[in-house]
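Sanity check record (used in CI):
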Amino acid sequence: MNNFTHLDDQGQARMVEVGGKEITRRLAVARGEIVMRPETLDMIISGKVTKGEVFGVARVAGIMAAKQTSSLIPLCHPLNLTGIDVQFRPDQDNNKIEIEASVRITGQTGVEMEALTAVSVAALTIYDMCKAVDRAMTIGAIRLIHKSGGKSGVFEREPIKENQ
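Expected output for Cyclic pyranopterin monophosphate synthase:
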């Protein structure tokens, strides 16, 4: 037996059986960021991006991505998510936008991958909408912040330091 639940005894990939797991309320929160030129951030905040309202489009993209995670990540279960929130925090001092996604379910498996996928696709959407004026944008620091519910209990990430 190995410690990776997505591998069988012969090391072959498999979808984990969750049918015997307890149904619990589960929450996952993920964060990431997109760093850009100050002028690009100003355009987003002031609503001057020609492709449209960046935060609204990126929010919908993140929500849609969370719902499609099992189509993108091969061994993820298709889930009946009960709630998805995607938020943006512009940080003009550091020329970046922090993206946070919260995903909820009452079910037998967690929603960490759905939260991480929502953040990733929201960031990619911002890049797509702004690439005409700033191709040097950088997407990064995508990470799980909080997870609760299920047998493994609560996970809380230690705060990260700048430039870490």
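The longest strand covers residues 24-35. If this sentence no longer matches the regenerated tokens, the check is flagged for review.
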